[in-house]
């Protein structure tokens, strides 16, 4: 039996909140422990890798562990014709839950480190090369997530997705936000991981372009979609494990 839409929305809200708390909190901790920007980014990226892997493992069986409107919208787009994919109603519930969770996670991280609550970030990230970085990061993420599903390797998502995000921290100019909800949440904190509100809309636009590019690459590499691609990032909806083969 599948989890109700309400339970899945709660999982997406809590999971996205925890993810942003990890990103923002580890960034604050890193800046308090070191003045070396390279060390700060290393600490931030490692915490994100470990945290994301745990969160996908925990919440994947309930909601699919999207934690990302770009992934949710891609899941809706790829499954809209088959009748087996994510519905528009489900996407319309997931995306606000993810966004509210991201804002809550940023506020929680600020509160844990005695930072001012709801202090808009002053970290300007408005530049063409950063937008290109977001396109690349998001395209790669979408290609990975849906490629795992196409090849029946969704069970590897927790390790694969976390590893990709950790790598993309370093190989993209933008440090791989690759997530519209997380981008909005990070505008609420004037700390290491923040992004100025004026930079948010272009980042989100680049991420949506990246998602479209990722779907294009998916079609080019793997061909037509399989009948059901709703189990993103990992399969969800089962209340018990299937018995093992004798």
Short description:
This protein is 66% helix and 0% strand. The protein has 246 residues and is mostly helical.
List keywords for this structure.
single chain, 246 residues, mainly alpha, 66% helix, globular, disordered C terminus
What does this entry look like structurally?
The protein has helices at residues 5-33, 37-63, 69-79, 88-112, 128-150, 157-171, 180-186, 197-222. It has 246 residues and is an all-alpha fold. The chain is globular and about 50 Å long. Mean pLDDT is 91; it is low at 238-246.
Q: What topology does this entry show?
A:
Blueprint (H helix, E strand, L loop, with lengths): L4 H29 L3 H27 L5 H11 L8 H25 L15 H23 L6 H15 L8 H7 L10 H26 L24
Helix pairs in contact: 1-2, 1-4, 1-7, 2-6, 3-4, 3-5, 3-8, 4-7, 5-6, 5-8
Give the overall form: globular
Class from secondary-structure proportions: mainly alpha
Mean pLDDT: 91
Beta-strand percentage? under 5%
- The succession of helices and strands, N to C, reads HHHHHHHH
Q: How helical, in percent, are the residues?
A: 55-70%
Low-confidence stretches: 238-246
Q: How many β-strands, per DSSP?
A: 0
Annotation field: number of helices:
8
> Radius of gyration over alpha carbons?
17 Å
Give the terminus-to-terminus CA distance: 24 Å
How would a crystallographer describe the biggest sheet?
none
